[in-house]
Design brief:
This protein has eleven helices and 13 strands. The strands form four sheets. Strands 3-2-1-4-5-6-11 form a seven-stranded parallel sheet, sandwiched between helices. A two-stranded parallel sheet has the order 7-10. It is of the alpha/beta class. Helices cover 41% and strands 16% of the residues. Helix 1 crosses helix 8, helix 5 runs parallel beside helix 6 and helix 9 packs across helix 11. It has two domains: 223 residues, NAD(P)-binding Rossmann-like Domain (Rossmann fold); 66 residues, Alpha-Beta Complex (UDP-galactose 4-epimerase, domain 1). Helix 1 links the parallel strand 1 and strand 2.
Length: 324
Protein backbone atom coordinates (compact mmCIF):
# COMPACT_ATOMS: atom_id res chain seq x y z
CA UNK A 1 0.00 0.00 0.00
CA UNK A 2 1.82 3.11 -1.16
CA UNK A 3 0.94 6.67 -0.34
CA UNK A 4 3.95 8.62 -1.51
CA UNK A 5 6.89 9.28 0.78
CA UNK A 6 5.46 9.90 4.21
CA UNK A 7 7.08 11.34 7.30
CA UNK A 8 5.48 9.56 10.23
CA UNK A 9 5.70 10.04 13.98
CA UNK A 10 5.03 7.05 16.22
CA UNK A 11 4.67 7.52 19.96
CA UNK A 12 5.37 4.31 21.86
CA UNK A 13 7.65 3.18 19.04
CA UNK A 14 9.66 0.85 21.31
CA UNK A 15 6.57 -1.10 22.38
CA UNK A 16 5.23 -4.26 20.77
CA UNK A 17 2.96 -2.43 18.32
CA UNK A 18 5.30 0.48 17.72
CA UNK A 19 8.10 -1.74 16.49
CA UNK A 20 5.92 -3.72 14.09
CA UNK A 21 4.31 -0.50 12.84
CA UNK A 22 7.67 1.18 12.26
CA UNK A 23 8.89 -1.82 10.29
CA UNK A 24 5.78 -1.94 8.10
CA UNK A 25 5.85 1.80 7.40
CA UNK A 26 9.58 1.72 6.69
CA UNK A 27 9.01 -1.08 4.20
CA UNK A 28 6.43 1.20 2.58
CA UNK A 29 9.17 3.80 2.15
CA UNK A 30 8.18 6.14 4.96
CA UNK A 31 10.59 8.29 6.96
CA UNK A 32 10.23 7.02 10.53
CA UNK A 33 10.34 9.21 13.62
CA UNK A 34 9.62 7.87 17.09
CA UNK A 35 9.08 9.31 20.53
CA UNK A 36 11.02 7.56 23.29
CA UNK A 37 11.32 8.24 27.01
CA UNK A 38 14.70 9.23 28.43
CA UNK A 39 16.55 6.05 29.34
CA UNK A 40 14.25 3.74 27.36
CA UNK A 41 16.24 0.50 27.32
CA UNK A 42 14.26 -0.83 24.36
CA UNK A 43 15.48 1.93 22.04
CA UNK A 44 18.76 0.20 21.19
CA UNK A 45 16.97 -2.98 20.18
CA UNK A 46 14.64 -1.03 17.92
CA UNK A 47 17.55 0.73 16.24
CA UNK A 48 19.28 -2.60 15.63
CA UNK A 49 16.22 -3.79 13.72
CA UNK A 50 15.51 -0.41 12.12
CA UNK A 51 18.69 1.73 12.06
CA UNK A 52 17.09 4.32 9.79
CA UNK A 53 14.50 5.28 12.42
CA UNK A 54 15.04 8.70 14.00
CA UNK A 55 14.25 8.71 17.71
CA UNK A 56 13.31 11.80 19.71
CA UNK A 57 13.57 11.79 23.50
CA UNK A 58 10.56 13.31 25.16
CA UNK A 59 7.58 12.88 27.45
CA UNK A 60 3.93 12.83 26.41
CA UNK A 61 3.06 14.93 29.45
CA UNK A 62 5.46 17.71 28.36
CA UNK A 63 2.85 19.81 26.58
CA UNK A 64 5.19 22.37 25.03
CA UNK A 65 7.78 19.76 24.14
CA UNK A 66 5.21 17.68 22.26
CA UNK A 67 3.82 20.72 20.44
CA UNK A 68 7.32 21.75 19.40
CA UNK A 69 8.18 18.26 18.15
CA UNK A 70 5.12 18.10 15.91
CA UNK A 71 5.62 21.64 14.63
CA UNK A 72 9.25 20.94 13.73
CA UNK A 73 8.64 17.53 12.13
CA UNK A 74 5.36 18.42 10.38
CA UNK A 75 4.57 14.69 10.02
CA UNK A 76 1.99 13.62 7.49
CA UNK A 77 0.90 10.81 9.82
CA UNK A 78 0.89 10.51 13.60
CA UNK A 79 0.27 7.17 15.32
CA UNK A 80 -0.31 7.53 19.06
CA UNK A 81 0.50 4.18 20.63
CA UNK A 82 2.12 5.41 23.85
CA UNK A 83 0.53 5.45 27.27
CA UNK A 84 0.09 3.45 30.44
CA UNK A 85 -0.67 0.06 28.89
CA UNK A 86 -1.49 -1.95 32.00
CA UNK A 87 -4.95 -2.01 33.56
CA UNK A 88 -3.40 -3.14 36.85
CA UNK A 89 -0.94 -0.23 36.82
CA UNK A 90 -3.80 2.18 36.15
CA UNK A 91 -5.39 1.19 39.46
CA UNK A 92 -2.11 1.96 41.23
CA UNK A 93 -1.48 5.21 39.33
CA UNK A 94 -4.83 6.61 38.17
CA UNK A 95 -3.67 10.22 37.93
CA UNK A 96 -0.60 9.38 35.85
CA UNK A 97 -2.77 7.17 33.64
CA UNK A 98 -5.19 10.05 33.07
CA UNK A 99 -2.34 12.40 32.15
CA UNK A 100 -0.41 10.06 29.84
CA UNK A 101 -3.18 8.00 28.25
CA UNK A 102 -5.88 10.67 28.23
CA UNK A 103 -4.89 14.33 28.54
CA UNK A 104 -1.70 14.05 26.47
CA UNK A 105 -3.78 12.98 23.48
CA UNK A 106 -5.52 16.38 23.54
CA UNK A 107 -2.18 18.08 22.94
CA UNK A 108 -1.35 15.81 19.99
CA UNK A 109 -4.78 16.26 18.42
CA UNK A 110 -4.81 20.03 18.87
CA UNK A 111 -1.36 20.41 17.34
CA UNK A 112 -2.16 18.05 14.47
CA UNK A 113 -5.33 20.07 13.78
CA UNK A 114 -3.37 23.35 13.86
CA UNK A 115 -0.82 21.96 11.41
CA UNK A 116 -3.62 20.80 9.12
CA UNK A 117 -5.27 24.24 9.29
CA UNK A 118 -1.96 25.90 8.38
CA UNK A 119 -1.57 23.84 5.21
CA UNK A 120 0.39 20.84 6.55
CA UNK A 121 -2.27 18.10 6.66
CA UNK A 122 -1.83 15.43 9.30
CA UNK A 123 -3.54 12.06 9.48
CA UNK A 124 -3.91 10.95 13.10
CA UNK A 125 -4.44 7.41 14.43
CA UNK A 126 -5.27 6.79 18.08
CA UNK A 127 -4.76 3.33 19.57
CA UNK A 128 -7.95 2.90 21.58
CA UNK A 129 -8.90 -0.16 23.59
CA UNK A 130 -11.79 -2.55 24.11
CA UNK A 131 -11.35 -1.76 27.82
CA UNK A 132 -13.45 1.34 27.09
CA UNK A 133 -16.51 -0.90 26.86
CA UNK A 134 -16.10 -2.21 30.42
CA UNK A 135 -18.62 -5.00 30.94
CA UNK A 136 -20.71 -4.72 27.77
CA UNK A 137 -24.27 -6.02 27.84
CA UNK A 138 -24.00 -7.59 24.40
CA UNK A 139 -21.40 -9.49 22.42
CA UNK A 140 -19.77 -9.00 20.06
CA UNK A 141 -19.08 -5.29 20.49
CA UNK A 142 -18.91 -2.89 17.56
CA UNK A 143 -18.29 0.81 16.97
CA UNK A 144 -21.69 1.77 18.39
CA UNK A 145 -21.41 -0.23 21.63
CA UNK A 146 -21.88 2.11 24.63
CA UNK A 147 -18.63 3.23 26.22
CA UNK A 148 -18.74 2.41 29.94
CA UNK A 149 -15.24 1.75 31.32
CA UNK A 150 -14.67 -0.07 34.61
CA UNK A 151 -10.99 0.85 35.16
CA UNK A 152 -8.90 4.05 35.22
CA UNK A 153 -7.17 2.77 32.08
CA UNK A 154 -10.47 2.31 30.27
CA UNK A 155 -11.65 5.75 31.39
CA UNK A 156 -8.48 7.45 30.12
CA UNK A 157 -8.75 5.63 26.80
CA UNK A 158 -12.42 6.65 26.56
CA UNK A 159 -11.53 10.33 27.01
CA UNK A 160 -8.94 10.14 24.23
CA UNK A 161 -11.35 8.22 22.00
CA UNK A 162 -14.03 10.88 22.37
CA UNK A 163 -11.49 13.62 21.64
CA UNK A 164 -10.63 11.94 18.34
CA UNK A 165 -14.28 12.33 17.35
CA UNK A 166 -14.27 15.96 18.50
CA UNK A 167 -11.27 16.87 16.33
CA UNK A 168 -12.52 14.81 13.41
CA UNK A 169 -15.64 16.98 13.49
CA UNK A 170 -13.35 20.03 13.28
CA UNK A 171 -11.79 18.71 10.09
CA UNK A 172 -8.83 16.60 11.23
CA UNK A 173 -8.34 13.25 9.51
CA UNK A 174 -8.44 11.40 12.84
CA UNK A 175 -9.15 7.71 13.38
CA UNK A 176 -9.64 5.71 16.56
CA UNK A 177 -8.88 2.01 16.36
CA UNK A 178 -10.58 0.08 19.14
CA UNK A 179 -8.02 -2.66 19.59
CA UNK A 180 -8.82 -5.95 21.22
CA UNK A 181 -6.09 -8.09 22.78
CA UNK A 182 -3.26 -8.72 20.35
CA UNK A 183 -0.10 -10.65 21.02
CA UNK A 184 3.31 -11.57 19.67
CA UNK A 185 6.70 -12.75 20.94
CA UNK A 186 7.49 -9.08 21.58
CA UNK A 187 4.79 -8.79 24.25
CA UNK A 188 6.48 -7.70 27.53
CA UNK A 189 6.62 -10.30 30.31
CA UNK A 190 4.45 -8.07 32.51
CA UNK A 191 1.46 -9.16 30.41
CA UNK A 192 -0.36 -12.32 31.43
CA UNK A 193 -0.10 -13.87 27.95
CA UNK A 194 3.70 -13.63 27.92
CA UNK A 195 3.84 -14.79 31.52
CA UNK A 196 1.95 -17.91 30.41
CA UNK A 197 4.13 -18.68 27.38
CA UNK A 198 7.35 -18.10 29.34
CA UNK A 199 6.22 -20.46 32.11
CA UNK A 200 5.10 -23.15 29.66
CA UNK A 201 8.48 -23.09 27.91
CA UNK A 202 10.41 -23.18 31.20
CA UNK A 203 8.36 -26.01 32.69
CA UNK A 204 8.76 -28.02 29.47
CA UNK A 205 12.50 -27.41 29.73
CA UNK A 206 12.67 -29.22 33.07
CA UNK A 207 12.02 -26.40 35.48
CA UNK A 208 9.40 -27.48 38.04
CA UNK A 209 8.20 -23.97 38.80
CA UNK A 210 4.48 -23.35 39.06
CA UNK A 211 2.48 -20.72 37.22
CA UNK A 212 0.26 -18.51 39.38
CA UNK A 213 -2.61 -16.78 37.58
CA UNK A 214 -5.75 -14.83 38.38
CA UNK A 215 -9.13 -15.24 36.70
CA UNK A 216 -8.91 -18.20 34.31
CA UNK A 217 -12.47 -17.65 33.13
CA UNK A 218 -11.96 -14.13 31.73
CA UNK A 219 -12.92 -14.22 28.05
CA UNK A 220 -10.92 -12.30 25.48
CA UNK A 221 -10.58 -11.87 21.74
CA UNK A 222 -6.89 -12.44 20.90
CA UNK A 223 -5.25 -11.52 17.61
CA UNK A 224 -1.80 -11.26 16.03
CA UNK A 225 -0.10 -7.90 16.69
CA UNK A 226 1.33 -7.32 13.17
CA UNK A 227 -2.21 -7.68 11.78
CA UNK A 228 -3.41 -4.94 14.12
CA UNK A 229 -0.75 -2.41 13.13
CA UNK A 230 -1.59 -3.13 9.49
CA UNK A 231 -5.14 -2.00 10.33
CA UNK A 232 -3.72 1.27 11.67
CA UNK A 233 -1.99 2.02 8.38
CA UNK A 234 -5.09 1.12 6.40
CA UNK A 235 -7.18 3.47 8.55
CA UNK A 236 -4.71 6.34 8.23
CA UNK A 237 -4.66 6.03 4.45
CA UNK A 238 -8.35 5.46 3.89
CA UNK A 239 -10.05 8.39 2.20
CA UNK A 240 -12.55 8.98 4.98
CA UNK A 241 -11.52 8.95 8.67
CA UNK A 242 -13.49 6.87 11.12
CA UNK A 243 -13.51 4.57 14.14
CA UNK A 244 -12.89 0.84 13.76
CA UNK A 245 -13.11 -2.19 16.01
CA UNK A 246 -10.03 -4.33 15.33
CA UNK A 247 -10.60 -7.87 16.57
CA UNK A 248 -10.92 -11.46 15.38
CA UNK A 249 -14.53 -12.01 16.40
CA UNK A 250 -13.51 -15.22 18.19
CA UNK A 251 -13.31 -15.45 21.96
CA UNK A 252 -11.23 -17.68 24.23
CA UNK A 253 -10.74 -17.88 27.97
CA UNK A 254 -7.44 -17.42 29.78
CA UNK A 255 -7.77 -21.15 30.50
CA UNK A 256 -7.80 -21.77 26.71
CA UNK A 257 -4.64 -19.70 26.37
CA UNK A 258 -2.93 -21.71 29.09
CA UNK A 259 -3.95 -25.02 27.50
CA UNK A 260 -2.75 -23.93 24.05
CA UNK A 261 0.58 -22.74 25.46
CA UNK A 262 1.30 -25.98 27.30
CA UNK A 263 0.29 -28.09 24.30
CA UNK A 264 2.67 -26.04 22.14
CA UNK A 265 5.38 -26.72 24.73
CA UNK A 266 4.64 -30.46 24.61
CA UNK A 267 2.65 -30.77 27.86
CA UNK A 268 -0.90 -32.08 27.67
CA UNK A 269 -1.82 -31.98 31.36
CA UNK A 270 -1.19 -28.42 32.49
CA UNK A 271 -3.39 -28.44 35.60
CA UNK A 272 -0.66 -29.75 37.88
CA UNK A 273 1.52 -26.73 37.06
CA UNK A 274 -1.03 -23.93 37.38
CA UNK A 275 -2.59 -22.49 40.51
CA UNK A 276 -5.09 -19.65 40.89
CA UNK A 277 -3.85 -16.80 43.08
CA UNK A 278 -6.45 -14.24 44.26
CA UNK A 279 -3.75 -11.56 44.26
CA UNK A 280 -3.84 -11.53 40.47
CA UNK A 281 -7.55 -10.78 40.18
CA UNK A 282 -8.30 -7.21 39.08
CA UNK A 283 -10.47 -5.01 41.34
CA UNK A 284 -13.04 -4.95 38.52
CA UNK A 285 -12.46 -7.18 35.53
CA UNK A 286 -14.22 -6.96 32.20
CA UNK A 287 -15.71 -10.43 32.00
CA UNK A 288 -16.20 -10.82 28.25
CA UNK A 289 -14.62 -8.92 25.40
CA UNK A 290 -15.22 -9.99 21.82
CA UNK A 291 -15.17 -7.62 18.87
CA UNK A 292 -17.03 -7.38 15.59
CA UNK A 293 -14.46 -6.29 12.96
CA UNK A 294 -16.90 -6.25 10.04
CA UNK A 295 -16.64 -2.47 9.47
CA UNK A 296 -12.85 -2.72 9.14
CA UNK A 297 -13.34 -5.63 6.78
CA UNK A 298 -15.82 -3.78 4.59
CA UNK A 299 -14.14 -0.36 4.47
CA UNK A 300 -10.45 -1.15 4.94
CA UNK A 301 -10.27 -4.64 3.45
CA UNK A 302 -8.74 -5.80 6.72
CA UNK A 303 -8.94 -9.31 8.17
CA UNK A 304 -6.95 -11.23 10.80
CA UNK A 305 -4.48 -13.70 9.30
CA UNK A 306 -3.20 -15.85 12.19
CA UNK A 307 -5.52 -18.18 14.19
CA UNK A 308 -5.47 -18.35 18.00
CA UNK A 309 -3.56 -21.62 18.46
CA UNK A 310 -0.87 -20.49 16.02
CA UNK A 311 -0.43 -17.15 17.81
CA UNK A 312 0.13 -18.96 21.11
CA UNK A 313 2.42 -21.53 19.51
CA UNK A 314 4.57 -18.81 17.90
CA UNK A 315 4.97 -17.15 21.30
CA UNK A 316 5.98 -20.40 22.97
CA UNK A 317 8.46 -21.27 20.21
CA UNK A 318 10.02 -17.83 20.47
CA UNK A 319 10.75 -18.29 24.18
CA UNK A 320 13.64 -20.59 23.31
CA UNK A 321 15.00 -18.41 20.52
CA UNK A 322 16.82 -15.06 20.42
CA UNK A 323 14.42 -12.10 20.32
CA UNK A 324 13.27 -11.41 16.78
Amino acid sequence: MTHGTERVLITGITGQDGGYLAEQLSNDGAEIHGLVRDGDEAASGLLQRLPQAQLHTGDLTDTEGMRDLLRVLKPSEVYNLAGISSVAQSWEQPTLTAEVTGVAVAVLLQTAWQLTESGNPVRFVQASSAEMFGNPQRSPQNESTPIAPVSPYGAAKAYAHHLVGVYRARGLHACSLILYNHESPRRPSSFVTRKITQAAARIAGGDTEQLALGNLDARRDWGWAPDYVDAMVRAARHAVPGDYVIATGVEHTVRDFVAAAFVAAGIDDWNQYVRVDPRFFRPVDAVEQIGDPSKAGQLLGWAPTVPFDEIVARMVRAENQPAE
